[in-house]
Amino acid sequence: MQQKIIILERAATLGGILEQCIHTGFGLHYFGEELSGPEYAAKFIEQLEKTDIVVKTDTMVLDIDDNNLVTAVNKADGLLKIQAKAIVLAMGCRERTRGAIQIPGNRPAGVFTAGSAQYYVNILGHSIGK
Rounded to two decimals, what is the model's pTM? Predict the structure, then answer.
């Protein structure tokens, strides 16, 4: 029986929120050097590439049934059915909305969360404000 590890990543690249954290402060514990978020993620991605772990980016998991059958989809493979022995869900983090933290009122136009602002500036290269 062949066993493999498969990483299904919804985003186009690995690294998650680290990709938009361009400030330093990462890496001292694991690598003994101060790194930005993208540099820190890149070090782990380099280690991953030296293994036989399969990585599928731009892949959306649609379902995990009670028998660990994972249904996913991406442009390259179409619909995937993967029978897993074990599943680790590592879904990262997302900022919570005003409603989720029960702040009354509507979201004011032009007000961004810190994570949204980082994404627009550091990833998309947009200026948000004057």
Answer: 0.74
